[in-house]
Design goal:
heterodimer; A: about 200 residues; mainly alpha; 8 helices; B: about 130 residues; 2 domains; elongated; binds zinc ion
Chain lengths: ~200, ~130
């Protein structure tokens, strides 16, 4: 099984050089992990600007804590723990007055485009995004990691330090709850049938 | 869940499909969750424009620089205050305006330092427990 951790391109040598304190190499590390860091953060906090700031802070914290990083292990899971802590703390402080960006979720390209359906698709993406943002942070996280980052159960379990059983039960409740919120959208989509092979 | 996410072996799939054929409850549940997955599978998180990413590192670097600068300033100020305190204790001499100002300044600085350290320690402690949170 390949590790789809998005940072497979950060070599051990690079990580070692970073640990030894090179800021130049730190830039390399940031550049190869920033897209992923941002995508996960925006999924959890729901707001593009906050996601950028929080992921930057997480990189700064990682840089400060680099001495504790083990170069034998992949970078992202280690970094992710720092990032997720920041995001969850942020949400705790912001409880109740959170700003959710729009236009974060879009439909994947490459599907048959019929212009008249464009608006409907946009609405669909927006509905899903809103519903995800209404989940609890922990359920939101599991949906992001599984459905958008496409991590396997094992990778999620290792990253979060939980069992695969817990991954499954969280996913189950998260999806169940999404279906509850999006019943109409999901059923419409189903009735509309396949416009893909 | 494992069925939906392609985490089952071929044998498991066959067995599970046989169960689905005979169990309405599971079939219904799989149906619903499958529809959710179909919807999420169509979407992705939008990747921001190139200039967002260009500025991303620049801004991060500036923040890092600024943090380092502050660290030096605080360290420098701490040394000055310590030196002044030591000077004041060992050889205060007569009370002058400048010395009074220095004592007030030093007192303020020490209080600030204690307060920051206390907050840091507190945050570190609570963060540690947050790490464990599942
Ligand atoms: Zn059943």
């Amino acid at each position: 099984m390949t590790v789809t951790d998005g940072t497979a391109d950060i070599s051990k040598e690079t990580l070692q050089a970073w640990k030894d304190g090179s800021v130049k190499v730190f830039e390399e590390v940031v550049r190869s992990a920033m897209r992923r860091a941002y995508a996960v953060a925006v999924g959890i906090v729901g707001n593009a600007e906050d996601a950028r700031d929080l992921s930057q802070e997480a990189f700064m914290a990682a840089h400060r804590a680099r001495a504790t990083f083990d170069v034998e292990r992949p970078f992202f899971p280690w970094f992710y723990r720092i990032l997720r802590n920041r995001c969850l703390n942020f949400l705790r402080k912001r409880a109740g007055r959170r700003e959710v960006s729009i236009d974060v979720l879009i439909e994947k390209p490459g599907r048959s485009e019929s212009p008249d359906k464009g608006v409907m698709r946009k609405e669909r993406a927006e509905a899903l995004w809103q519903a995800i943002q209404e989940l609890t942070p922990v359920h939101r996280e599991i949906v992001i990691l599984r459905s958008f980052q496409e991590l396997s159960y094992r990778e999620i379990a290792e990253t979060l330090g939980i069992s695969e059983g817990t991954v499954m039960s969280r996913l189950y409740y998260a999806r169940k709850s999404l279906y509850g919120k999006l019943k109409d959208v999901c059923d419409d989509l189903y009735r509309e049938g396949d416009d893909e092979p | 869940m494992r069925y939906l996410d392609g985490e089952m072996s071929a044998a498991e799939r066959t067995a599970f499909e046989a169960h689905l054929a005979s169990c309405g409850e599971c079939r219904q549940s799989m149906n619903e969750l499958g529809r959710v997955e179909r919807l999420t599978g169509m979407m992705k998180i939008r990747d921001p424009q190139d200039d967002f990413w260009e500025n991303y590192w620049k801004k991060l670097f500036r923040r890092l620089e600024r943090k380092t600068a502050w660290l030096f300033i605080i360290a420098g100020a701490a040394l000055i205050v310590l030196y002044a305190l030591w000077k004041g204790v060992t050889d205060f001499g007569e009370i002058t305006f400048v010395k009074v100002v220095a004592v007030i300044f030093a007192a303020g600085f020490v209080i600030l330092l204690i307060s920051v350290v206390r907050e840091r320690v507190h945050r570190y402690r609570t963060d540690r427990y947050r790490d464990i949170e599942r």
